[in-house]
């Protein structure tokens, strides 16, 4: 893993994602230097705000706006945003980079390492390591276990994770590549010669991470389209350019491949380049059984093209229902399509509320009224305010008195605003022994209790599982939040017996969460399917910490769709009255 590329060199090339990446790197470098955690969090929150903003800050500044109007962006951060928009650089980042070993930043991204251990490895190993391979070699030689705070087991885990890093291709979180995908598609569609332009590949299938982006454009003048594509301002270098296809690497490090096709080939190209490879192989097998051939240009009998302009007509040719992109993994979707038994996948429009929302009473950026306004604009009918409980001191968690005050504030808000419902909730910490960090008489006053693990991730499988089961035994717990605790590219899921957890949740009438925060996307699609098979309902939530974070619902829904879930599997697809009845029945 390498550092984020340097900032773009010209103002027109700077997008919100570029600034957010720079702020994320500043936060990581400050964390490695053991800087003030509140300063670190300010940069991370600013990055999150920028990613959720509805407007490019460069456009905002151009029309006379000020970035400090954005939630959580003060004068200092606004000035840094302005600097990057104007110059393409961030002087604070330029100053910090030489102060911290580049290897420490790479190591901090390895799951299970973190900033402090990364620095310990860089400073403690002799000779001083310069690459991940140097650290791996030290681990294989038994030198890591000799460092303070390490041991044989931690050394073994580090070696395994570094070996896994070497085997993996560079991948990106889906949310982080979204701005680039949308900007490039917008650029293509702005060309009058382009009839249509879409994103294909794993991005279209809703995968949590993507290795590259695949774009398909329809045009009768493909060479013009590829020439326009490689000239995009955020292109770092061109890998290939031909008459109908081109490949570039963006300044963010993301590779993007473009195919320009004729209208009659569009459906076949979208199907082929969306994948997955396994799904395409299954379709090819069906074609062969019928004496046909399928490729990116269509379905052929000999030289005669039978279909190719539309994906749905290709599936119909094989007597299959249309398979949504999220299901195309050769995991039973072909057989279900043949039987007419594909699920009617949940849609974003089915979601009526968000049951995991934070305000500035704990570690959120916006007030209750601001979060409600943002939820209304997203078309939601209700939210649950679930600020952190007292154990999360770093998140300004609520003790008994502060939570009681928030309960009163929510009651007052609901009385004054009858057109929208705010549920009184809390994200309550599950302590290492499985107890909750708020008393039952207080939980009784809440409409909704979301329980979550935020510490002691390394407990053995049996203890971690028992910890969760004990928490679910509390009759007030309705949702288990981000159930496996993973952070993509940063922290592995903790070791639990998910089958036992799901059986316990079903018996107790509890739900599991699909957390749409782009770093989490927890639980994964396989566990979604497992939950459905066990009769456990799920909640698709944003884990919003700011008014613009409700966009995370889109990622949670994509995860649900990959898990074959329907609206009936999602508790917050219910009207609020039915949801409250369901919660009451579980107590």
Automatic annotation (TrEMBL):
Catalyzed chemical reaction(s): DNA(n) + a 2'-deoxyribonucleoside 5'-triphosphate = DNA(n+1) + diphosphate
Keywords: DNA damage, DNA repair, DNA-directed DNA polymerase, Exonuclease, Hydrolase, Nuclease, Nucleotidyltransferase, Transferase
UniProt key word Signal: no
Pfam family, one: HHH_8
GO MF annotation terms: exonuclease activity
Name of the gene: polX
All residue ranges annotated as the Polymerase/histidinol phosphatase N-terminal domain in the record: 353-432
Record carries keyword Transcription regulation: no
Catalytic activity, EC: 2.7.7.7
Annotated ranges, domain DNA-directed DNA polymerase X: 13-329
InterPro entries reported in the protein's UniProt record: DNA-dir_DNA_pol_X, DNA_pol_lamdba_lyase_dom_sf, DNA_Pol_thumb_sf, DNA_pol_X_beta-like, HHH_MUS81, NT_sf, PHP_dom, PHP_phosphatase
Protein name according to UniProt: DNA-directed DNA polymerase
PANTHER family: PHOSPHATASE YCDX-RELATED (PTHR36928)
CDD domains reported in the protein's UniProt record: NT_POLXc (cd00141), PHP_PolX (cd07436)
Domain of life of the organism encoding this protein: Bacteria
């Amino acid at each position: 893993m390498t550092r984020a590329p340097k900032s773009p060199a010209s103002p027109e090339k700077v997008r919100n994602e570029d600034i957010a990446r720079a702020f994320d790197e500043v936060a990581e470098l400050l964390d490695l230097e053991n800087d003030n955690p509140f300063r670190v969090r300010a940069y991370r929150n600013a990055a999150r705000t920028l990613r959720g903003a509805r407007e490019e800050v460069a456009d905002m500044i151009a029309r006379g706006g000020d970035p400090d109007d954005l939630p959580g962006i003060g004068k200092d951060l606004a000035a840094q945003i302005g600097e990057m928009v104007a110059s393409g650089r961030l002087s604070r980042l330029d100053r910090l980079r030489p102060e911290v070993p580049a290897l420490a930043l790479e190591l901090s991204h390895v799951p299970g390492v973190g900033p402090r251990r990364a620095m310990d490895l860089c400073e403690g190993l002799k000779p001083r390591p310069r690459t991940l391979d140097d650290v791996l070699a030290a681990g294989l030689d038994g030198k890591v276990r000799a460092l303070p705070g390490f041991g044989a087991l931690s050394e073994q885990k580090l070696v395994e994770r570094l070996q896994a890093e070497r085997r993996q291709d560079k991948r990106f979180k889906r949310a982080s590549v979204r701005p680039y995908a949308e900007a490039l598609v917008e650029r293509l569609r702005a060309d009058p010669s382009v009839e249509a332009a879409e994103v294909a590949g794993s991005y279209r299938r809703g995968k949590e991470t993507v290795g590259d982006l695949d774009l398909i454009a329809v045009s009768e003048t493909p060479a013009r389209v590829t020439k326009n594509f490689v000239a995009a301002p955020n292109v770092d270098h061109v890998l290939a350019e031909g008459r109908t296809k081109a490949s570039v690497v963006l300044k963010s490090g993301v590779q993007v491949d473009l195919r320009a096709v004729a209208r009659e080939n569009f459906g076949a190209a979208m199907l082929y380049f969306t994948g997955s490879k396994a799904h395409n192989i299954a379709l090819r097998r069906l074609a062969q059984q019928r004496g046909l051939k399928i490729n990116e240009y269509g379905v052929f009998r000999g030289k005669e093209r039978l279909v190719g302009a539309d994906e749905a007509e290709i599936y119909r040719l094989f007597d299959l229902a249309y398979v949504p992109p999220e299901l195309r993994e050769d995991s039973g979707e072909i057989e279900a399509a043949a039987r007419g038994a594909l699920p009617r996948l949940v849609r974003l429009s089915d979601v009526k509320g968000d049951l995991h929302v934070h305000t500035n009473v704990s570690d959120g950026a916006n007030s209750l009224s601001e979060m409600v306004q943002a939820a209304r604009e997203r078309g939601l009918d209700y939210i649950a305010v679930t600020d952190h409980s007292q154990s999360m001191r770093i998140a300004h968690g609520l003790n008994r008195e502060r939570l009681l005050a928030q309960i009163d504030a929510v009651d007052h808000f609901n009385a004054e605003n009858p057109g929208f419902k705010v549920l009184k909730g809390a994200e309550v910490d599950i302590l290492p022994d499985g107890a909750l960090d708020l008393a039952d008489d207080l939980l009784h006053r809440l409409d909704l209790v979301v329980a979550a693990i935020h510490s002691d991730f390394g407990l053995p499988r049996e203890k971690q599982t028992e910890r969760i089961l004990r928490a679910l035994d509390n009759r007030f717990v309705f949702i288990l939040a981000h159930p496996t605790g993973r952070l993509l590219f940063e922290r592995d899921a903790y070791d639990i017996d998910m089958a036992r957890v799901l059986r316990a949740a079903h018996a107790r009438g509890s739900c599991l969460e699909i957390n749409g925060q782009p770093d989490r996307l927890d639980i994964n699609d396989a566990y979604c399917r497992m939950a459905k098979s066990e009769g456990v309902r799920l909640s698709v939530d944003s884990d919003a910490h700011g008014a613009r974070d409700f966009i995370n619902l889109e990622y949670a829904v994509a995860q649900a769709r990959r898990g074959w879930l329907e609206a009936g599997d999602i508790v917050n697809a219910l009207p609020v009255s039915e949801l409250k009845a369901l919660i009451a029945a579980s107590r």
